[in-house]
Amino acid sequence: MTDNALKLSHFHPILRTWFSSRFGEPTDVQKQAWKHIISGTHTLISSPTGSGKTLAALLPCMDRVAKTKQSLGDSYQAGVRVLVVTPLKALNNDIHDHLIHFIAEIDEAAASSPKKADWHGLRVGVRTGDTTQSTRASMLKNPPDLLVTTPESLYLLLTSPRARQMLKSVEQIVVDEIHDLAADKRGMHLSLTLERLDAWCGRSVQRIGVSATQKPIERVARFLGGWEADQPRQVGIIESKAEKQYALQVTMPEPAKPGADKEEIWTPLVERLLQLMDGCSTVLIFANSRRLCERMTLRLNDHVGHEIAKSHHGSVAREKRLEVERLLKAGELRCLVATSSLELGIDVGHVDLVIQIDSPFSAAAGIQRIGRAGHAVGSVSRGVLLARSRSLLPELAVLSRRIAARDIEDIRIPRGSLDVLAQQLVAMGAMGDELDVAQLARLLAQSDSFHELPEERWLAMLEVLSGLYPFVRPLIAWDRETGRLERLAATQMAALTGAGTIPQSTAYPVHHNETGLHLGELDEEFIHESSVGDVFQLGTASWRIVRKRPERIYVQEADNRYSEIPFWRGESGGKSFELGVQTGQLWRELRDRLQAQSSTEADLAVLNWLSEQYFFGIEASQSLISLVRNQIAVNTVPTDTTLVIESFLDENNQAHYILHSLFGRKLNRTWLMAIEKQLKRHGLAALYTNAKDNGIELIFPSLQDAVVPAILSISFIEAEQYVIEAVAESGMFGAAFQRLAETSLLLSRSFTRVPAWLKRLRGQELIKEALPFKERFPLFQEAMRECLEEHVDLPHLQHILQVIQLGTIQIAVHRNHFPSPLAAQFKSDYVAQKIYESDALTEDLQVELLGFSRQMAADIFGAEAIRRAVSPQIMEAEEQKLAKADEPLASAAEVLRFLKERGDASIPELVKVSAASETLVAAWMDELVQQGKAALAYFSTTTRYICKDEMAFYASLSSDAVSRSFVFQRFADGKLSFTTEELAVHFDIDPQLAASWVETALASQQIAEAPFADPGTEELWTSSKVASRLIRLSLQSYRRGGGAISPFTYLAHMPLRRKLSDRADVPGMEELLAIIQDLQGFFLPVSHWESLLFPTRQLAYRKQDLDTLCSSGQIVWLGRKEPGEKEGRIAFFLAESHSLFEPCLAAVSHMPVSQPYLLTLLQEKGASFLSKLGIETGKPPSVLLEELLQLVWDGQAANDQFAPLRLHAMGASKKPDKFQSGLGRWYALSSLYEPTFDKQASAMQWTHHLLERFGLVTKDVVSAFCPFPWEAIQSALRQLEEWGIVVRGLFIADLHALQFATKTFISLLHQQPAIPLASQTKFTLVSAVDPANPFGLLLDWPEVAGISFARKQGNYLALKGSEWLYWIENNGKRIYQITSLADTASDPSIIVQELKLMFRQFLKQHQLRKIVIDTWNGVRISEAPEQAYLKLLGAEKDRTSFVLWPSQLS
Question: Where would I find the Helicase ATP-binding domain in this sequence (predicted)?
């Protein structure tokens, strides 16, 4: 008998016959694995892709089921005998299809066998989130023998009372691609699920793990087997002797032609891909992001002119993915571009070649991906690593060598995550089985992931889940006397909706508009940035957005082949520290080899070395050699033993510091955290920082000698403290806490998509609630642990800093005139960052804007606005709610919940909030005390009841801050407001101690001044929660007060426009000062002020009045001129308005100066006349004036008169012949600037200023007129909203932007405009460029046929009262009626009189000699019927135009 027969002889005859005829000789891994599995030992199989490892694991399991069926015959009980768990649904479907196919072949073999009666068949099923309800129901009635599923679906099966019944019979479980699961939280989750499965089955289920890439294999084996009696369970390890052969190549596309545009840059890459694909029937291309995947597919298809490629990634709908996989497997698809969605062991059929675009980041990923080619047993896998940038070549060299040698990275198996434990705890409790703390401890000890978890940590999590903290919904009942754990009403639903550790998707589903077919998913942020009508690419097709709904978008096919490529956040990878060290070693060897011989000889030797050892093509080798040589020529080469710090100035004189560290993005990001803390400690602030795989970049306003010493002085001890502090302050920590809370089921999940902003909001609320207990609340420590272990690399950073101090790693410092080749990549990234700069606030501004105070708001907006913040009706309703007037307590359970939510209470207090008598309430309390759920707390004046689990808090109330916070918070939350005296009386404490409690609670934002209290005079406190609720409900009542109003209604009420219409033609400086106060801070073209803005508001405006106001020091002006602007802009300010002009000065304080010598002179000499400056500089006044004006446009200098700018604004023909040099004194604006000005007060003052001028504030208004970014003003507005002073909403119809307004203005919008009688016939001409015109700025222009509106000088809105009648273009040459004349008046004489008033004002206001009218409503006036009105006015015809003279309008 042959060795082959010996190995197969163990199997059922039918299986033996089928395998021999189908595959012939078993592979080495199959022979070894079958022996272990048949013996019943837990088994771990490690074997290359295409070595037959799937049947190595599954055939013995199939054999066991077949033999059991044969031996039991009709008494065989249906049930799942074998579970197959895989990480991906796609892999599930693949294995399921294979098993279906195998079983069909086996049944066919059995039918023709003489022993067919011994074959009872095998049934296989698949259970994932995609399984239909009908299939699930059928499976419960008739379970399959083998069930293929995912870890999450297995968890759900065990957590379902009916579904878990079919798992009672499970004898074996196969975990496929175990390396992928073991490396993250899904593995921890599965580890506990496996122990739960053993407990449910009442026996040890045999575990079989399978993977092509696992190292160290002993550690993976321990993870698979778990523990028994404090010893690792025995796991047999099978490592295949089969050697997988790889044919690798590292290459690059041809460099793009100089000056190539965006489209042409793709051409060399696409052409290189097509060259590589030549001669291949099927090619698989891997991209590192979904965006690149879609873009690559589009470019390939466009280049060849027809569809040869399709895309495959997680955001393509399942149906589309399955169709693409089918086409690939059938050999009907030439090329498939995929992300990691096809990385794991899915059988994609025959693939000739795998091309990896850029780095796969790890050898394991590279092996998995390239292993898709030559998937059959014994086949060679052909793969190409294609670098788009030559800086990636060293990394690809290292990876290619490791892939060929199958030298994979060590798997780091995480342990002890409390969020995973919490979810499984709730799931176990949901089943209602006998469960106590002792059983739970034994179960955790058996799981490898939780074997070493300290008892105090998981007990702290159990406290949270059982409702110790009133702000967390209890999900499980814990009897501390007996240790029993029992389910609550919410337990089952929480366990089912919160399954798994994969964060719930916030992506938007994409559906076809006509058919409703699900096409895929898009990133939430991409959807928010897209509009109806936009075209994007998804799955090789172009789609146009037709409808946007809160939960999905609808699209239809589009012809646009150059459609937008969507983006998906959080997709970028990075190389590991280990890979970084090896890359550094390669750099060092390259440097040494290139310097060892003459240039030509060395280049040829290195080229051959790269080809033989690292599989480099000629173009890649030449490119890498060129890069290294260029770096050697200008700088030191960074290696594993040499770090380089280089600095240089860019074209804006900003200083770039590049720390070339090849140790990977994770370590460099950690190092950057420490560097930023160190720089801050030394008073140094960078404009921009960035950490990448190959280094760190910092940009400063100028060269700073202290930067390099500060970086080099960080010790490994300081680094730890710096990084911990940085993590605690970062968004990383908040995001980690939110994920933990979600997985722990503390933040409820749902079966539908939850918007990302809502998830963030819920997470922030939980952090805020738990913050007083941060030393005790377990998720705070867990979030910090996760951040330090998963997101930063502190151990390796400390190692690097230590070896730097020891001198093992050298530091080379260079100051260059230009960036080195390696630094140039950083510079280009920075340019891109500035071009596409987000609206995020800079860190220093974030910090400085944290201090908005209620008193500040009262000072700026008035105390009355604060007092009106809360509606009296809302206050009354809230008081009723807190008193439980609508929902009185009606049972002992409700009283217990009341004590948990509100804290201690006496019998009389409980009677007030219940519907029962004192006797019944007392009986309830006795019952709760006897059950051990409540206890008595004794105060000197009264006895109160508390929850039993809170006794420790009350016992340490006076001495422990956490206890005080716990108890005091609920006291505050249960009252509309309270005084310090009431607090002292309630807890029987000294008034001074009560005052300190209040002070601490105010500092931690647990309480706040009551929103209805008089600021600064009335000491009344309210819980922050209650205050927020009062404000929120009050604001909602305002938002619901009326529908959106039309833009024309807003125009009628806009404050700037109303003031313009209600102007009194009063001459003099006092009136001019009031006008400037209204317009201060608005940077507008110089010529507009005295030709448009002042004369419109003051018909008797005099230029000397403006000069007098300037020279007397009552007003100041500032200049600004953006690149490309023909005319500079000027803003006026009242001299005392420091809060308004300080941020304008701050914005230019670090900007480059065009005339630094002249500015220094002004700063040293003070305010000086032009003639004096001429003597100091020796320059003629005319030259000096031009230089001073350059400083004006830099925002650095000004004059105490306006006359110099007036002359500058005149055309050359209007300027006086003789040069005037005595016009005012020039001074540096730095004399007005105080760098430490109050940014909070300034932002609040600007917010008030804009609200007073425009009535409401939007992002566009802030962008046009405010020196602060939108985020700063939005922070102030949100704070004002929290205090009830402003309301946000969509108040104006068709204005699709967030709008903030005061309550007074909202009320005004919904009233009829109260215009004085005298103003009803008064015409107002508003220039299109005037800030009083909201159209084209805050509002879209109305759609009127034949009119192209524009904010252009010479265009006007003609208003009668608040009604817009006419649109005038080019100073009257073209006139359009906005409102039909038939709607305004039926009597022609009235129309003529109105036109006379309008034209008279037009002449007077703009000092015109005449008005020439060419067209009316787009028709030549000589042919328009409206010429009759002009004739009645006495207008003269001039060819095809009509002319009006002042004499005709008097």
Answer: 34-232
Q: What distance lies between CA 177 and its chain's CA centroid?
A: 31
Find the farthest-apart pair of alpha carbons in the chain and give their distance in angstroms, rounded.
127
pTM reported for the whole predicted model? 0.70
pLDDT tens column, 997-1038: 999 888 887 888 887 777 666 788 898 888 877 777 776 666
pLDDT in tens, 723-737: 999 888 887 888 888
1443: helix, coil or strand? strand
Angle (CA) 1326 1330 1332, round 5°: 70
- Indicate whether 852 pLDDT > 60: no
Model confidence at 60: pLDDT above 90: yes
| Long-range contacts from 945-948, C-beta under 8 angstroms, 24+ separation | 945/899, 945/904, 945/905, 945/906, 945/907, 945/910, 946/899, 946/903, 946/904, 947/896, 947/899, 947/900, 948/480
| DSSP H helices in 278-387 | 290-304, 318-329, 363-370
**Alpha helices (H) along 903-1043:** 907-912, 918-930, 951-955, 961-973, 980-987, 991-1003, 1024-1039
Helix, coil or strand: residue 116: helix
Residues 267 and 256: beta-carbon distance below 8 Å = yes
Of 1375, 1373, 1393, 1374, nearest in space to 1384 by CA: 1393
Q: Sort 1222 into a burial class: Cβ within 10 Å, 0-12 / 13-18 / 19+.
A: exposed
CB-side neighbour CA atoms (13 Å) of 53: 29
Residue 81: both structure tokens together: 């005998």
DSSP 1253-1313: HHSEE-HHHHHHH-SS-HHHHHHHHHHHHHTTSEEEE--BTT--S-EEEEHHHHHHHTS--
DSSP string covering 493-509, please?
Answer: HHHHHT-SSSPPP-PEE
Burial of 567 (0-12, 13-18, 19+ CB in 10 A): middle
- Tell me phi and psi for residue 1153, to 5 degrees: -110, 135
Query: Above 70 in pLDDT, residue 569?
Result: no
How does pLDDT run across 345-385, given as a tens digit for each residue?
566 778 899 999 999 989 988 988 888 887 666 678 899 99
Pairing between β-strand 1256-1257 and β-strand 42-46 as defined by DSSP bridges: unpaired
850 pLDDT band (50/70/90 cuts)?
very low
Q: Which residues contact 450 (CB under 8 A, 6 or more apart)?
A: 188, 191, 192, 415, 416, 421, 444, 458
Who's near 259: CB < 8 A, 6+ residues apart?
A: none
List 1115's β-bridge partners, or say none.
Answer: 1134
Place of tokens 């060892």: 596
Query: Could you tell me the domains of the chain?
Result: 3-182+204-239 (3.40.50.300), 246-404 (3.40.50.300), 508-557 (no CATH), 889-948 (1.10.10.10), 1150-1232 (1.10.10), 1341-1449 (3.40.630)
Q: Where are the beta strands (DSSP E) in 452-540?
A: 476-478, 485-487, 508-512, 518-522, 535-538
Handedness of CA 263, 269, 270, 275 (dihedral sign): positive
DSSP annotation string for 1319-1339: GTT-EEEEETTSTT--BTTTB
Per residue in 321-338, is it b (16+ CB within 10 Å) or e — as a string? Answer: beebbebbbeeebbbbbb
Nearest CA among 122, 77, 78, 80 for reference residue 99:
122
| Contacts of 532 by beta carbon, 8 Å cutoff, 6+ apart | 545, 546, 547, 548
Q: Exposed e or buried b for every residue in 1067-1104, given b needs 16+ CB within 10 A? A: eebebbbebbebbbbbbbbbbbbbbbbbbbbbeebeee
Alpha carbon of 283 to those of 392, 439, 727, 943: distances in Å? 23, 53, 43, 79
| Helix, strand, coil in percent for the chain, rounding step 5 | 50, 15, 35
Say what the alpha-carbon torsion angle 845, 847, 848, 850 is, to the nearest 10 degrees: 120
